[in-house]
Amino acid sequence: MILPIVAYGDPVLKKVGEDINEDYPKLDELIGNMFETMYNAYGVGLAAPQIGLPIRLFVIDASPFAEDEELTADQKKELDGFKRVFINATIVEEEGEEWGFNEGCLSIPDVREDVYRKPKITIEYLDENFEEKTEVFDGLIARVIQHEYDHIEGILFTDKLSALKKRLIKGRLANISKGKINVDYRMRFPAQKKKR
User: Fold this and answer.
1) Which residue out of 78, 103, 113, 148 is catalytically annotated?
2) According to the annotation, is 105 in a ligand binding site?
3) How many CB atoms sit inside 10 A of residue 118's CB?
4) N or C: which end of the chain has fewer CB within 10 A?
5) Which residues are CB-contacts of 99 (< 8 A; sequence separation ≥ 6)?
6) CB of 140 within 8 A of CB of 75?
């Protein structure tokens, strides 16, 4: 089922996610819905806060990223077929010299900015079968993971911009939070909170 993606300005995007356990209700269904929602919006990653759930869960399928013509053959190979579920993730180390890359976010449509991140990470997480993993990633995969990981920490890529950049996009962000934007996927705007 395709779920609405929560727009910039919703408080859930600023919450630090809570760990979940194997008894989390309908987890397999939730993971499937997250992938379906992400594909519908042409994304490569989606975190649970982006669908309104303040939990430590995100999914990534970097394969569409591999079709970018500006990437090298090695980068394309690295991204193609990379599909993972991350539960209760913790980045334990970030290494190297920060590098800039133009990032966007499904919760912040039509805003793209250069974000600086370290190129190599070590991350501990549980997969969809609740098997413990500790892995090292670098390059664009590390960047996609860092972006989604930030979501479960209550951080948006716009939080990493300079004060000047933030001022320059302030009006666009305000319009997104008010729903004054056209997108070709389902979104839920802060002004359209569900009625109880």
Assistant:
1) 148
2) yes
3) 17
4) C
5) 116, 117, 119
6) yes
- Give pLDDT, residue 71: 81
Determine the straight-line distance between the first and last CA of the chain, rounded to whole angstroms.
Answer: 22
The answer to whether residue 93 is catalytic is: no
Domains and CATH numbers, the chain: 5-181 (3.90.45.10)
For the cut 50, the answer to whether the pLDDT of residue 42 exceeds it is: yes
The length of the chain in residues reads 196
94 annotated as ligand-binding:
no
Cβ atoms of residues 89 and 191 within 8 Å:
no
Q: Is 151 labelled a binding residue?
A: yes
The pLDDT tens digits for 46-81 are 999 999 999 999 999 998 887 877 888 888 888 888
